[in-house]
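Field log, afternoon session.

UNIT: design team B
ACTIVITY: writing a sequence onto a fixed backbone
BACKBONE:
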């Protein structure tokens, strides 16, 4: 589990690349809130890295976090929390019992008060099977899985295929099993398998894992969503890609109007520590 939330703000260490995150985006499963884009051209299907910060809003249903794959059928890559048990699962699903990549953690993500940082890094060209897919939480590699399936060498995953969808917080733009929680600093780096130190660092005085600015490139279908522009719930504002690739996401069912229903928050990983 994450460390307890600290009630005060610690100034980021600029020498270590510390980042002060401005905003997070709140997702409501009952509202079918989601972010969607269609991939324009096929890029690297063997090597890529997802990085994101998440604070959960707990309930007992299965919840999708991200989806990368076919618009209406298989194959697809997805990341989700399991119903009731709250384990985390990532799979590349090809129909039936075919799951060339699949991990289900023994760890249960039940802490609704803390921010978690996740990194999922893939490089199927690696000679050693366990190096081909890695999951990190708060800077530490997860090694305890109830299911642990590594891809074959040079396996072409379901990610980054022309015409497929990249989605946050639901499955194929579906209307069930949507995410409840807060999302910040969402990256996809297309073409690189990165370690969590590309996105975070351990704060020396406290030992807390903190976000830092990613300084690298994002590749063809990569993106960086920081949700800093809450002037409108549009792809040009709330869903704007800050990587320079213009891989903007279309937001659905979010509100940025003042009041209780506003989904743009200043509750971020630099205000609430994991």
């Amino acid at each position: 589990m994450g460390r307890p939330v600290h009630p005060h703000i610690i100034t980021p260490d600029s020498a270590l690349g510390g980042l002060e995150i401005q905003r997070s985006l709140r997702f409501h499963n009952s509202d079918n809130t989601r972010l969607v884009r269609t991939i324009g051209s096929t890029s690297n299907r063997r090597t890529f890295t997802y990085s994101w910060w998440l604070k959960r809003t707990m309930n007992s249903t299965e919840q999708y976090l991200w989806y990368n794959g076919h618009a209406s059928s298989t194959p697809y890559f997805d990341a989700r929390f399991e119903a009731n048990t709250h384990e985390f699962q990532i799979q590349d699903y090809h129909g039936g019992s075919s799951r060339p990549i699949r991990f289900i953690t023994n760890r249960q993500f039940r802490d609704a008060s803390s921010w978690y940082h996740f990194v999922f890094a893939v490089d199927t060209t690696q000679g050693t099977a366990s190096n081909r897919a890695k999951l990190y939480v708060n800077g530490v590699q997860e090694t305890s899985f109830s299911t642990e399936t590594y891809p074959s060498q040079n396996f072409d995953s379901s990610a980054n295929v022309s015409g497929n969808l990249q989605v946050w917080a639901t499955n194929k733009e579906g209307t069930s099993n949507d995410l409840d929680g807060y999302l910040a600093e969402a990256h996809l780096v297309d073409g690189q398998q990165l370690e969590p130190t590309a996105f975070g660092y351990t704060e020396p005085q406290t030992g807390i894992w903190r976000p830092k600015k990613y300084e690298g490139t994002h590749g063809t279908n990569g993106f960086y969503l920081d949700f800093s522009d809450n002037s409108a719930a549009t792809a040009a504002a709330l869903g704007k890609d800050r990587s320079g690739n213009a891989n903007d996401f279309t937001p659905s069912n979010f509100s940025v109007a003042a009041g209780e229903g506003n989904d743009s928050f200043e509750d971020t990983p630099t205000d609430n520590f994991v």
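LOG NOTE: The radius of gyration is 17 Å.
NEXT ACTIVITY: expression trials, pending approval
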